[in-house]
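Thread title: Can someone regenerate the structure for this chain?

I was given the following input by a collaborator and told the matching structure tokens would be attached. They weren't. Posting the sequence so someone can regenerate them.
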Amino acid sequence: MMSKKRRILAAVLVLVLVLGSLAACGGPKKERYMKTYIDAFDTAITFIAYSESEEDFNAAAEKLHEELLRYHKLYNIYNEYEGINNIYTINKNAGNGEPVVVDPAIIDMLEMAVEYYEKSDGEINVAMGSVLKIWHNTRTHGIAFPEDAKLPKMERLIEANAHTDISKMIIDRENSTVYLEDPEMALDVGAIAKGYATEMVALMLEEDGWVNAALNVGGNIRSLGVKGDGSLWAVGIQNPDLSDTENVSVELIEVERMSLATSGVYQRFYTVDGKNYHHIIDKDSLMPEDRYLSVSILTPHSGVADAVSTALFNMDIEEGKEFLKKLDDTYAMWILPDMTKVYSEGFEDFIVK
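Best answer:
Regenerated them for you:
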């Protein structure tokens, strides 16, 4: 299995090779700058912008970095931080009768998660933490001790799945509290939190006047306006076959103020009896399904892109296309196990011919 460090470097390479290599003739009036961090959301963060001064760029990069670290702590399900009530805190207090006072950024993200739970008929469910925790622990053990890698027992998964009713997540916006009524319930916001944070940071940068920039937060790519010379941003969609070093990207698209997110089998997986099991769990089978190698979503809002890529991964293609009809300006590309590419209506309009 490819190491986490190599997967991170591969994701960075897609952004750097593409965004960094397609400048228009004559060159932009502003200078191009780039910074990369590897300490928020357990992934690589790359910020590229055209700026009149390196000092201005560095200040924006540091502000972006600090804000992503803040979101990382708020949305963390594994760790608690002094003075911060986060998703971990909400899970820890499930069923104890005491709603948890949280930052409005948690309320906003969870309300969006509920909205897309309803739109996707439950395919995006942040209340599946009890099931996903079993898979996470089993996968972590299997990666550390491959000779002892096993699948979770279905009986345990079914029992945990009885505690995934999202209606038992009580959000009180007026008092800024969240409470889980079921003591065995847990939130896992991995399908939306990173994309949502990416969007919020992008909006912050736009409010600060950055209109010639792009950022990549662990594969959640968000463009802000166009490049410094007025041309569109060109973004590569990562090849799910990471052993193919000749073709880092399988498709090249051009965008302006759009987001791209991809869910794929190559991101997090482990091997049991010669078969790979990825991290995207189907709500019905409670297992990782083998429909696709990856699903890529192109839409203006990065949180939507993140959530919808997960939802479509657990739908067949026709179901996915019907779901997309409910959404504005949202397009998909599926890569099948044989590397065949399938596009929703409108996606091919963004492809560089």
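The two ends are 34 Å apart (CA to CA).
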